[in-house]
Design brief:
It is a single chain. The protein is built from eleven helices and 18 strands. With 429 residues, it is of the alpha+beta class. It is elongated and about 80 Å long.
């Protein structure tokens, strides 16, 4: 059931993109020859007006075929016969549809689930945040001289800088304060985990559990407070990690507190290879407002993630990020499935899929605006050149540019898909 919801969500993102192109094309009286759901051999179709609506075999992607988009046409309703600004509106409509739909989806999610704020809600003693002089209630507004709009911005800049010492700016009592900040580096190593997520608000309280994972098999439940491992009292996440590392993958006694009673369980930790991590020693707060507050946060969310796509492109070019970290459709579905596994109810699963759909949709929209051949961004650049030259670029030349870009993207997609599939089976590159 979860996989079905994930596949539907992934296809929703792609269909919304094509619906954006389709809707503006229709409004602009451009002849649309075909609107197709999915790709491959045609299963069924019907024609309404001048457009054929098709359903095809392979349940992925969608496309819109407009008269005169990739070939010469004498029709006055051909794409190529319309003014530059109309064609630009049709091209831009796809990415914008993704971004707008992401805002709507995340607004619904924020209205139901709330959202993380930029205000610090908790600071651990003797941590990086404590040493830097951060205080509960501080609003973090800059990290490494980069403006922050949502907690994910902080996470992105922290990891891309590899946790180097830097400066952060906070707002405290309506004053801007600059502080030196040095995250604690946790070296990459093999880690032993019970496959649960602890609450950031309540110490050692289990907030989510991986379905089929070590914690679920042991009988640990959401809301349990982990109080001891192998009869060793644990008072925070660092204590839990320390005992688990010392224990390795041997069975371990877990004592939890549930409904005021202590329960003894036995679990077998799983071994996982971890990346280098950076402990900052604080947690961002949560808030929940009315629909207008949620909408405002939704717009901030979209802007921030569009900006991150731009940053990511520059990081790929400069080598700060690697192409091996990119994921394709297989990786996206796998990631969504892993996230859903940590949920404990159908509603939690739906909310998780909603939030991930919003993230992916805004990323798809922003990525398509990159001026790379075969993407919508490159078509907008070509239209801008046409506007400056005051004459169209020959369709055959535009087709050559698009074809080259298309084959590069296909090649990149094949490599990424191979990597995603290999990762699912435990091979790392």
């Amino acid at each position: 059931m979860n996989i079905l919801m994930i596949i539907l969500a992934f296809n929703f993102i792609l269909i919304i993109h094509e619906l954006g192109h389709f809707t503006v094309a229709k409004l602009s009286k451009i002849k649309v020859d075909e609107f197709s759901l999915f790709i491959g051999p045609k299963l069924l179709s019907f024609t309404k007006g001048e457009t054929t609506y098709s359903l095809r075999l392979f349940p992925i992607l969608a496309y819109v075929k407009m008269e005169g988009e990739d070939e010469e046409s004498d029709s006055e309703n051909a794409f190529s016969k319309k003014p530059v600004w109309v064609r630009a509106a049709v091209i831009a409509a796809g990415p914008l549809a993704n971004i707008i739909s992401a805002i709507i989806i995340i607004t619904v999610f924020f209205s139901i689930n709330g959202y993380r704020t930029m205000n610090i809600s908790k600071i651990a003693e003797d941590s990086a945040a404590f040493e830097a002089g951060l205080q509960v209630g501080d609003e973090i507004i800059e990290y490494d001289n980069k403006r922050l709009y949502q907690p994910m911005d902080f996470d992105q800049f922290l990891y891309i800088s590899k946790g180097k010492p830097t400066n952060i700016k906070v707002k405290r009592d309506n004053k801007i304060i600059e502080l030196d900040f040095e995250p604690l580096k946790i070296s990459a190593t093999k880690r032993y985990m019970l496959e649960f997520v602890l609450s950031t608000e309540n110490v050692n309280v289990v907030e989510a559990i991986t379905k089929g994972g070590a914690a679920e098999k042991a009988g640990i439940k959401k809301g349990d407070r982990v109080v001891a491992l192998n009869n060793t009292m644990v008072s925070n996440i660092e204590d839990i990690r320390s005992v688990l590392q010392a224990n390795g993958n041997r069975p371990i006694d877990v004592t939890v507190e549930r409904d005021g009673k202590k329960i003894d369980l036995n679990a077998t930790p799983v071994e996982k290879a971890d990346m280098e991590q950076y402990d900052v020693g604080f947690a961002f707060g949560y808030s929940k407002g009315d629909v207008f507050t949620s909408l405002k946060q939704g717009v901030v969310f979209a802007y921030s993630n569009v900006r991150i796509v731009g940053y990511t492109l520059s990081w790929l070019i400069t080598g700060k990020a690697s192409f091996t970290e990119m994921v394709g459709p297989v990786g996206i579905v796998s990631t969504m499935n892993d996230a859903v596994k940590t949920t404990v109810s159908t509603m939690d699963a739906i909310l998780t899929i909603l939030s991930l759909t919003a993230y992916i949709s805004v990323a798809v929209g922003a990525t398509n605006l990159i001026p790379f051949p075969a993407l919508d961004g490159s078509k907008l650049v070509l239209l801008a050149v046409e506007a400056v030259r005051r004459k169209p670029i020959p369709i055959e030349k535009e087709a050559i540019i698009t074809t080259i870009g298309f084959f590069i993207l296909i090649g990149l997609s094949i490599v990424i898909t191979f990597k995603d599939v290999a990762s699912i089976f435990g091979f790392q590159f």
